[in-house]
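Most newcomers find our protein records easier to grasp once they have seen one. Sequence and backbone structure share a record, each on its own labelled line. To make this concrete, we reproduce a full record directly below:
***
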Amino acid sequence: MRISAAAIALLLTSTAAIAADLAPAPVEPVAPVVLPFSWTGFYAGANVGYAFGGRDTVGIHNPTFIGDIGKLTGKGFLGGLQAGYNYQFDNIVVGIETDFQGAQIKDTVHGVVAGAPGRARSDIKWYGTLRPRIGYAYDRFLIYATGGLAYGNIDYKLSYNGASFSDSNTKVGWTAGAGVEYAFTDNISGRIEYQYVNFGSYTVRGGGTLNSKASPDFHAVRLGVNYKF
């Protein structure tokens, strides 16, 4: 049987069209899903900073007020560790943080009160805080406020008119501040934070009825780095 060239061409064309219809469609590449950054989780880190600007007025009482020797404006370096937990919902971040700082925040003041020389010295050797945080997150950028409990060891020494007295104990007070933090990776973030720390007011007693009112406080700026687990 003789098949014409036209019939053969038609048969080949039809076969190619059917094969093209049966071939699988090309698969389009799927873009990777990028999840938004979350601040939720435990973290720990370290910090260094500088304290300044305290206004601890040293007054002499015997037992009533005689006069002020001057102001102790403690300043010095500090450094320590911090750890905490954050929870993020929408753009709001809430959490709690504790830290412990070694410090050399000290000052000495001299003065004359009622014609007699006086000298006072304070030295904050270490302190710590426990405080909640609340902030607003713009993806990897976080701005926050914080405040809560502060405690620390204050070594306080004073002499007046030949009498000397001292106090070196752990005091409890409060702190408040704010900061900004940026997550460079999913685990590593850096921050800068301001704190005001106040240990309240207490009496340091000397011989007889002599005493002084201490009110240690300071401002601090700290740079820190955290690792989020």
Notes: The chain has a mean pLDDT of 89. The radius of gyration is 34 Å. Residues 86 and 104 are 30 Å apart (CA to CA). The chain is about 10% helix and 70% strand.
